[in-house]
Amino acid sequence: MLHLLKLEWLKQKNYVLFKLLAAAYIVFLPASLFIGKKMELGTGVPFNPAKDFFLFPTVWEWLGYFGNWMVFFVLGFLAVLMVTNEFGNKTLRQNVIAGLHREEFFKSKLIFMSVVAFFAAIYYMVCALVIGLLHVDDTLYFSTVFKNMDYVPRYWLMGMGYMSFGLLVGLLTKRTGIALFVYLGYTMVVEPFLRWVFHLYFFKNISMSFYPLNAMEDLAPIPIIEFADDMLKENGFRILLTPMEAVIATVIYSSLFLFFSYKRLKNSDL
Predict the structure, then answer these.
(1) DSSP code of residue 75
(2) Cα–Cα distance list, 1 to 20, 28, 140 (Å)
(3) 20 to 30 Å CA-CA from 103: which of 49, 59, 110, 155?
(4) Which of 91, 266, 255 is nearest to 171 (CA)?
(5) How many Å apart are CA 51 and CA 37, to the nearest integer?
(6) Cβ distance 232 to 138 under 8 Å?
(7) Is the pLDDT of residue 200 over 80?
(8) Chain centroid to CA 107: how far?
(9) Tally of domains in the chain
(10) Distance between CA atoms of residues 112 and 100, nearest Å
């Protein structure tokens, strides 16, 4: 396993876009809270950015929500590039010719993805702790600090979910530009259209929240429960998945994405 991880690291460590994506995540994850604090909000907004964004326990929720976007772009793009670069640079074919089995190639990607998602989650945890501790304005209790620590493993799972989807898209298309277009197009156009047009108007029930990318997003959703309550009153069902529902759905979808990625790799023309 360490050999495969080292092999993948040697491929990525000198890749300029990998460094840029890593730097963007490191800088913009904590910065996103401070940028959000500057937002102009109207009256009646059910939260206070100057307070809720930085204090325990809500700092876990808000940093998780902003981090959701960072993970979607940074880790998802990274997974796409990890695969398309192999086809574009012919390194996959060279590895196979040199004796690397396709199963080992797939394992190297999966292990690397798991490690990247792990460090992304650890960095999220460190940022939340540091920001929260720096903004303590009253007596601090351990129960308050660690109240939302369940966000950390969910954050890791969210990273694996987005990366699994990116891996599948990359293997299906093989070309970077097309793969990124499909990745963004499905997430920002196709799935929202299916959810908010087909389901909301023709098949109105909570199943509209179980689409793949939405389930991953609901691992760290925007922490405004009033929005979900309004949808419940208006349509008769919750608009947000519970954490357990989001976890189960993400595990299932991620497993399917990885399964189909493996099948695609096994049958792909190198």
Answers:
(1) I
(2) 26, 31, 42
(3) 155
(4) 266
(5) 9
(6) no
(7) no
(8) 20
(9) 1
(10) 16
**pLDDT at residue 34, as a whole number:** 79
What is the rounded average pLDDT for all residues in the chain?
88
What is the domain extent for residue 137? 2-267
Cβ-based neighbour number of residue 7 at 10 Å: 16
Predicted pLDDT of residue 50: 60
Place of tokens 């660690």: 146
Task: Give the C-alpha separation, 43 to 45, whole Å.
Answer: 6
**Quick one: angle between helices 243-267 and 102-134, nearest 10?**
150
Q: What is the rounded CA–CA span in Å between residue 203 and residue 223?
A: 26
| Cα–Cα distance measured from residue 249 to residue 215, given in angstroms and rounded to the nearest whole number | 6
d(CA 7, CA 1): 10
Contacting residues for 161 by C-beta, under 8 A, at least 6 apart: 212, 215, 216, 219, 250, 253, 254, 257
Which distant-in-sequence residues (6+ apart) come within 8 Å of 213 by Cβ? 162, 165, 186, 187, 191
Q: Are 33 and 124 in contact (CB under 8 A)?
A: no
Residue 83 in tokens:
């695969």
pLDDT for 270 equals 62
Q: How far apart are CA 169 and CA 178, in angstroms?
A: 9
DSSP assignments along 94-116, one per residue: HHHHTT--HHHHHHHHHHHHHHH
